[in-house]
Amino acid sequence: MQWTLFLVVLMGQCSFSTCSLYQYHFIRENKTWYEAQTYCRETYTDLATVSDMTDMRRLCSSTQNQDEAWIGLHSYPGKDNRTWYWSLPGLEFNVSSDTRWQRGEPNDGGPGAPSGTVENCVTINNQLWNDEHCYQKFTFFCFNGTKQSNTFYNITTTMTWPQAQNHCRHHYTDLVSGLDQLNDPTVASHSSVWIGVFRDTWRWSDGSNSSFRNWESLEDLVDGQSNKTCATVLNTAGTWSYDYCDKQKPFYCYEDNLILINQSVTWVEALKYCRENHHDLVSITNHHQQRWVQERIKNASTDFVWLGLRYTCTLGFWFWVSDEVVDYQNYQNWASNVTSDDCDMSAAINTGNNKWFKRPDNETFNFFCTKI
Fold it and tell me: Which pTM was predicted?
Protein backbone atom coordinates (compact mmCIF):
# COMPACT_ATOMS: atom_id res chain seq x y z
CA MET A 1 0.00 0.00 0.00
CA GLN A 2 1.34 3.44 -0.85
CA TRP A 3 2.04 5.64 2.17
CA THR A 4 -0.36 8.34 0.96
CA LEU A 5 -3.15 5.77 0.79
CA PHE A 6 -2.23 4.48 4.26
CA LEU A 7 -2.40 8.08 5.52
CA VAL A 8 -5.90 8.49 4.09
CA VAL A 9 -6.96 5.26 5.80
CA LEU A 10 -5.57 6.47 9.15
CA MET A 11 -6.94 10.00 8.99
CA GLY A 12 -10.31 11.46 8.31
CA GLN A 13 -12.40 9.26 10.61
CA CYS A 14 -14.02 12.29 12.27
CA SER A 15 -13.40 15.98 12.58
CA PHE A 16 -12.60 17.73 15.86
CA SER A 17 -15.96 19.49 15.81
CA THR A 18 -17.85 16.18 15.86
CA CYS A 19 -15.56 14.13 18.11
CA SER A 20 -16.18 14.67 21.82
CA LEU A 21 -14.75 12.58 24.62
CA TYR A 22 -17.86 13.17 26.75
CA GLN A 23 -21.26 14.83 26.55
CA TYR A 24 -23.82 16.18 29.00
CA HIS A 25 -27.51 15.27 29.26
CA PHE A 26 -30.11 17.30 31.13
CA ILE A 27 -32.81 15.15 32.74
CA ARG A 28 -36.03 17.03 33.42
CA GLU A 29 -37.26 14.68 36.12
CA ASN A 30 -37.33 15.58 39.80
CA LYS A 31 -35.24 13.17 41.87
CA THR A 32 -33.16 13.26 45.04
CA TRP A 33 -29.40 13.49 44.53
CA TYR A 34 -28.98 9.79 45.23
CA GLU A 35 -31.83 8.82 42.90
CA ALA A 36 -30.29 11.03 40.22
CA GLN A 37 -26.91 9.35 40.75
CA THR A 38 -28.48 5.90 40.30
CA TYR A 39 -30.33 7.01 37.16
CA CYS A 40 -27.18 8.49 35.57
CA ARG A 41 -25.08 5.43 36.35
CA GLU A 42 -27.70 3.09 34.89
CA THR A 43 -28.49 5.18 31.80
CA TYR A 44 -25.25 7.04 30.99
CA THR A 45 -21.99 7.15 32.98
CA ASP A 46 -22.58 9.22 36.13
CA LEU A 47 -23.87 12.51 37.49
CA ALA A 48 -22.12 15.39 35.75
CA THR A 49 -18.50 16.17 36.56
CA VAL A 50 -17.36 19.70 35.66
CA SER A 51 -13.64 20.39 35.14
CA ASP A 52 -13.53 24.07 34.11
CA MET A 53 -15.56 26.95 32.69
CA THR A 54 -15.48 25.38 29.23
CA ASP A 55 -17.25 22.36 30.70
CA MET A 56 -19.64 24.66 32.53
CA ARG A 57 -20.62 26.42 29.31
CA ARG A 58 -21.09 23.06 27.56
CA LEU A 59 -23.28 21.80 30.37
CA CYS A 60 -25.45 24.93 30.38
CA SER A 61 -25.77 24.92 26.59
CA SER A 62 -27.11 21.34 26.70
CA THR A 63 -30.50 22.74 27.75
CA GLN A 64 -32.45 25.94 28.25
CA ASN A 65 -33.11 24.86 31.82
CA GLN A 66 -33.90 27.68 34.23
CA ASP A 67 -34.29 25.44 37.28
CA GLU A 68 -31.79 24.51 39.95
CA ALA A 69 -30.36 21.09 39.02
CA TRP A 70 -28.09 18.51 40.67
CA ILE A 71 -24.52 17.88 39.53
CA GLY A 72 -22.22 15.14 40.77
CA LEU A 73 -20.51 17.01 43.63
CA HIS A 74 -21.10 15.82 47.20
CA SER A 75 -19.60 16.99 50.49
CA TYR A 76 -18.44 14.61 53.23
CA PRO A 77 -18.22 16.92 56.27
CA GLY A 78 -15.47 16.57 58.82
CA LYS A 79 -11.92 17.82 59.28
CA ASP A 80 -10.46 14.43 58.40
CA ASN A 81 -12.24 14.37 55.03
CA ARG A 82 -10.58 17.46 53.56
CA THR A 83 -8.39 17.22 50.45
CA TRP A 84 -5.87 19.77 49.13
CA TYR A 85 -6.13 21.08 45.57
CA TRP A 86 -4.45 23.58 43.29
CA SER A 87 -6.82 26.32 42.17
CA LEU A 88 -5.87 25.86 38.51
CA PRO A 89 -8.20 23.19 37.01
CA GLY A 90 -6.39 20.12 35.72
CA LEU A 91 -3.26 20.59 37.86
CA GLU A 92 -3.10 17.64 40.23
CA PHE A 93 -1.94 18.26 43.80
CA ASN A 94 0.62 15.76 45.10
CA VAL A 95 0.61 15.88 48.90
CA SER A 96 3.95 14.05 49.19
CA SER A 97 5.90 16.41 46.93
CA ASP A 98 3.99 19.68 46.43
CA THR A 99 3.70 20.98 50.01
CA ARG A 100 6.05 23.50 51.63
CA TRP A 101 4.54 24.09 55.06
CA GLN A 102 5.99 26.25 57.79
CA ARG A 103 6.90 24.23 60.86
CA GLY A 104 3.71 23.16 62.60
CA GLU A 105 1.43 23.96 59.66
CA PRO A 106 -1.25 23.24 58.61
CA ASN A 107 -2.78 23.57 62.06
CA ASP A 108 -6.29 25.09 61.74
CA GLY A 109 -5.24 28.06 63.87
CA GLY A 110 -3.07 26.17 66.30
CA PRO A 111 -3.65 25.03 69.89
CA GLY A 112 -5.14 28.37 70.99
CA ALA A 113 -7.77 28.56 68.27
CA PRO A 114 -11.47 28.24 69.18
CA SER A 115 -12.94 24.75 68.87
CA GLY A 116 -14.12 24.01 65.35
CA THR A 117 -11.75 26.47 63.67
CA VAL A 118 -10.90 25.46 60.12
CA GLU A 119 -8.28 27.03 57.85
CA ASN A 120 -8.70 25.78 54.30
CA CYS A 121 -6.78 28.36 52.23
CA VAL A 122 -3.05 29.13 52.01
CA THR A 123 -0.68 32.10 52.07
CA ILE A 124 3.01 32.04 51.23
CA ASN A 125 5.60 33.56 53.58
CA ASN A 126 9.25 33.51 52.51
CA GLN A 127 8.40 30.57 50.20
CA LEU A 128 6.81 28.57 53.05
CA TRP A 129 3.07 28.03 53.49
CA ASN A 130 0.57 28.85 56.23
CA ASP A 131 -3.04 27.71 56.33
CA GLU A 132 -5.48 30.58 56.90
CA HIS A 133 -9.24 31.05 57.21
CA CYS A 134 -10.48 31.67 53.68
CA TYR A 135 -12.37 34.83 54.65
CA GLN A 136 -9.32 36.67 55.92
CA LYS A 137 -8.03 39.31 53.53
CA PHE A 138 -4.58 39.34 51.93
CA THR A 139 -2.99 40.58 48.75
CA PHE A 140 -2.37 37.91 46.12
CA PHE A 141 -0.73 36.88 42.85
CA CYS A 142 -2.54 36.08 39.60
CA PHE A 143 -0.97 34.67 36.49
CA ASN A 144 -1.79 34.78 32.81
CA GLY A 145 -0.74 31.61 31.02
CA THR A 146 0.28 31.30 27.37
CA LYS A 147 1.90 28.55 25.31
CA GLN A 148 5.28 30.19 25.81
CA SER A 149 5.27 31.57 29.35
CA ASN A 150 3.40 32.87 32.39
CA THR A 151 3.07 36.53 33.33
CA PHE A 152 2.54 37.30 37.03
CA TYR A 153 0.49 40.13 38.53
CA ASN A 154 0.83 41.27 42.12
CA ILE A 155 -2.64 42.47 43.18
CA THR A 156 -2.18 44.83 46.11
CA THR A 157 -5.87 45.13 47.00
CA THR A 158 -6.64 42.80 49.92
CA MET A 159 -9.39 40.24 49.31
CA THR A 160 -10.67 37.01 50.77
CA TRP A 161 -9.35 33.86 49.08
CA PRO A 162 -12.58 33.24 47.07
CA GLN A 163 -12.62 36.89 45.99
CA ALA A 164 -8.99 36.64 44.94
CA GLN A 165 -9.66 33.49 42.93
CA ASN A 166 -12.66 35.08 41.20
CA HIS A 167 -10.63 38.20 40.41
CA CYS A 168 -7.79 36.18 38.87
CA ARG A 169 -10.11 34.00 36.82
CA HIS A 170 -12.09 36.99 35.56
CA HIS A 171 -9.12 39.18 34.60
CA TYR A 172 -6.29 36.69 34.01
CA THR A 173 -6.03 32.88 34.19
CA ASP A 174 -6.03 31.92 37.89
CA LEU A 175 -4.30 32.34 41.23
CA VAL A 176 -0.65 31.25 41.07
CA SER A 177 -0.70 27.45 41.06
CA GLY A 178 1.99 24.77 40.93
CA LEU A 179 5.54 24.77 42.27
CA ASP A 180 7.00 26.05 38.99
CA GLN A 181 4.99 29.25 39.34
CA LEU A 182 5.69 29.57 43.08
CA ASN A 183 9.42 29.22 42.38
CA ASP A 184 9.38 32.24 40.07
CA PRO A 185 11.38 35.08 41.74
CA THR A 186 8.47 37.46 41.18
CA VAL A 187 6.32 35.37 43.51
CA ALA A 188 8.90 33.78 45.80
CA SER A 189 10.11 37.13 47.18
CA HIS A 190 6.74 38.09 48.67
CA SER A 191 5.13 37.23 52.00
CA SER A 192 1.57 37.07 53.33
CA VAL A 193 -0.06 36.68 49.90
CA TRP A 194 -2.75 34.22 48.85
CA ILE A 195 -1.67 31.42 46.53
CA GLY A 196 -3.79 28.93 44.60
CA VAL A 197 -4.00 26.18 47.23
CA PHE A 198 -7.19 25.24 49.07
CA ARG A 199 -8.87 22.21 50.63
CA ASP A 200 -12.47 21.16 51.01
CA THR A 201 -14.69 18.15 51.69
CA TRP A 202 -16.34 18.02 48.25
CA ARG A 203 -15.94 14.95 46.01
CA TRP A 204 -17.21 14.07 42.54
CA SER A 205 -19.57 11.15 42.14
CA ASP A 206 -17.39 9.45 39.51
CA GLY A 207 -14.24 9.69 41.67
CA SER A 208 -12.48 12.20 39.43
CA ASN A 209 -10.09 14.70 40.98
CA SER A 210 -11.41 17.92 39.43
CA SER A 211 -10.60 20.93 41.65
CA PHE A 212 -12.95 23.25 39.76
CA ARG A 213 -15.52 25.04 41.93
CA ASN A 214 -17.93 27.77 40.76
CA TRP A 215 -19.89 28.76 43.89
CA GLU A 216 -22.46 31.56 43.57
CA SER A 217 -21.43 33.35 46.78
CA LEU A 218 -18.64 33.34 49.32
CA GLU A 219 -20.85 31.56 51.81
CA ASP A 220 -20.94 28.60 49.45
CA LEU A 221 -17.24 27.93 50.05
CA VAL A 222 -18.28 26.12 53.23
CA ASP A 223 -15.94 24.82 55.88
CA GLY A 224 -17.25 21.29 55.70
CA GLN A 225 -19.77 21.69 58.53
CA SER A 226 -23.08 22.18 56.66
CA ASN A 227 -25.74 19.48 56.36
CA LYS A 228 -26.49 20.71 52.83
CA THR A 229 -24.04 18.38 51.16
CA CYS A 230 -25.10 18.07 47.50
CA ALA A 231 -24.19 20.62 44.84
CA THR A 232 -26.49 22.23 42.30
CA VAL A 233 -26.21 24.42 39.24
CA LEU A 234 -28.38 27.46 39.87
CA ASN A 235 -28.96 28.97 36.44
CA THR A 236 -27.77 29.26 32.85
CA ALA A 237 -24.81 31.33 34.08
CA GLY A 238 -23.50 28.11 35.62
CA THR A 239 -22.96 29.27 39.20
CA TRP A 240 -23.37 26.71 41.98
CA SER A 241 -25.05 26.33 45.34
CA TYR A 242 -25.82 23.35 47.58
CA ASP A 243 -28.89 21.85 49.22
CA TYR A 244 -30.15 18.93 51.26
CA CYS A 245 -29.59 15.78 49.22
CA ASP A 246 -33.13 14.48 49.76
CA LYS A 247 -34.68 17.45 47.94
CA GLN A 248 -36.06 16.59 44.50
CA LYS A 249 -34.65 18.44 41.49
CA PRO A 250 -33.83 17.87 37.81
CA PHE A 251 -30.22 16.92 37.16
CA TYR A 252 -27.33 16.62 34.74
CA CYS A 253 -25.72 13.33 33.69
CA TYR A 254 -22.64 12.85 31.55
CA GLU A 255 -21.84 10.16 29.03
CA ASP A 256 -18.22 9.08 28.69
CA ASN A 257 -17.14 8.41 25.10
CA LEU A 258 -13.63 7.31 26.11
CA ILE A 259 -12.77 3.66 26.78
CA LEU A 260 -9.52 2.38 28.30
CA ILE A 261 -8.68 -1.03 26.86
CA ASN A 262 -6.55 -3.04 29.30
CA GLN A 263 -4.88 -5.16 26.62
CA SER A 264 -1.23 -4.84 25.63
CA VAL A 265 -0.97 -4.54 21.84
CA THR A 266 1.05 -2.72 19.20
CA TRP A 267 -0.10 0.66 17.89
CA VAL A 268 -1.47 -0.76 14.62
CA GLU A 269 -3.29 -3.51 16.52
CA ALA A 270 -4.77 -0.86 18.82
CA LEU A 271 -5.93 1.18 15.83
CA LYS A 272 -7.56 -1.88 14.25
CA TYR A 273 -9.27 -2.89 17.51
CA CYS A 274 -10.76 0.58 18.08
CA ARG A 275 -12.06 0.86 14.53
CA GLU A 276 -13.57 -2.62 14.53
CA ASN A 277 -15.13 -2.46 18.01
CA HIS A 278 -15.70 1.22 18.78
CA HIS A 279 -14.78 4.27 16.70
CA ASP A 280 -11.09 5.21 16.75
CA LEU A 281 -7.96 5.68 18.83
CA VAL A 282 -8.24 8.81 20.93
CA SER A 283 -7.04 12.19 19.67
CA ILE A 284 -6.07 14.97 22.11
CA THR A 285 -6.25 18.36 20.43
CA ASN A 286 -6.77 20.64 23.45
CA HIS A 287 -6.08 20.71 27.18
CA HIS A 288 -9.70 19.89 28.03
CA GLN A 289 -9.38 16.53 26.27
CA GLN A 290 -5.96 16.01 27.88
CA ARG A 291 -7.53 16.52 31.30
CA TRP A 292 -10.28 14.02 30.55
CA VAL A 293 -7.73 11.40 29.46
CA GLN A 294 -5.62 12.02 32.58
CA GLU A 295 -8.56 11.24 34.85
CA ARG A 296 -9.13 7.90 33.11
CA ILE A 297 -5.54 6.74 32.72
CA LYS A 298 -5.22 5.80 36.40
CA ASN A 299 -6.62 2.30 35.79
CA ALA A 300 -4.08 1.38 33.08
CA SER A 301 -1.96 -1.74 33.59
CA THR A 302 1.00 -0.51 31.50
CA ASP A 303 3.34 2.47 32.07
CA PHE A 304 2.32 3.94 28.72
CA VAL A 305 -1.02 4.05 26.90
CA TRP A 306 -1.27 4.41 23.12
CA LEU A 307 -2.83 7.55 21.64
CA GLY A 308 -4.04 8.06 18.08
CA LEU A 309 -0.86 9.98 17.20
CA ARG A 310 1.70 8.74 14.66
CA TYR A 311 4.75 10.09 12.84
CA THR A 312 5.13 9.98 9.07
CA CYS A 313 8.81 10.11 8.14
CA THR A 314 7.80 10.39 4.47
CA LEU A 315 6.01 13.69 4.99
CA GLY A 316 7.89 14.70 8.14
CA PHE A 317 5.16 15.46 10.68
CA TRP A 318 3.09 14.01 13.52
CA PHE A 319 -0.64 13.60 12.88
CA TRP A 320 -3.72 12.54 14.79
CA VAL A 321 -6.00 9.88 13.34
CA SER A 322 -8.78 12.49 13.60
CA ASP A 323 -7.09 14.53 10.83
CA GLU A 324 -5.17 17.04 12.96
CA VAL A 325 -1.48 17.78 12.35
CA VAL A 326 0.67 18.47 15.43
CA ASP A 327 2.78 21.60 15.04
CA TYR A 328 3.73 24.68 17.04
CA GLN A 329 0.30 26.25 16.46
CA ASN A 330 -1.62 23.32 17.91
CA TYR A 331 -1.94 21.87 21.40
CA GLN A 332 0.80 19.44 22.42
CA ASN A 333 1.97 17.90 25.68
CA TRP A 334 5.31 16.28 24.82
CA ALA A 335 7.78 15.35 27.53
CA SER A 336 10.72 17.75 27.54
CA ASN A 337 13.27 15.01 26.80
CA VAL A 338 11.64 13.76 23.58
CA THR A 339 14.39 13.54 20.96
CA SER A 340 14.27 14.01 17.20
CA ASP A 341 11.58 12.24 15.19
CA ASP A 342 12.13 8.80 13.64
CA CYS A 343 10.27 6.41 11.40
CA ASP A 344 7.95 3.73 12.79
CA MET A 345 7.14 5.79 15.87
CA SER A 346 3.79 6.52 17.52
CA ALA A 347 2.84 8.46 20.64
CA ALA A 348 1.84 7.12 24.04
CA ILE A 349 0.87 8.97 27.20
CA ASN A 350 2.84 8.18 30.35
CA THR A 351 0.73 7.08 33.30
CA GLY A 352 3.11 8.75 35.78
CA ASN A 353 3.40 12.32 34.51
CA ASN A 354 0.69 12.39 31.78
CA LYS A 355 3.21 13.60 29.18
CA TRP A 356 3.37 12.29 25.61
CA PHE A 357 6.32 10.16 24.57
CA LYS A 358 7.23 8.76 21.17
CA ARG A 359 7.59 4.99 21.28
CA PRO A 360 8.44 2.36 18.64
CA ASP A 361 5.05 1.30 17.36
CA ASN A 362 5.82 -2.41 17.75
CA GLU A 363 5.92 -2.04 21.55
CA THR A 364 2.78 -3.19 23.36
CA PHE A 365 0.65 -1.01 25.66
CA ASN A 366 -2.93 -0.43 26.78
CA PHE A 367 -4.83 2.07 24.62
CA PHE A 368 -7.77 4.47 24.54
CA CYS A 369 -10.69 4.11 22.11
CA THR A 370 -13.43 6.63 21.49
CA LYS A 371 -17.08 5.64 21.02
CA ILE A 372 -17.93 8.41 18.52
Answer: 0.84
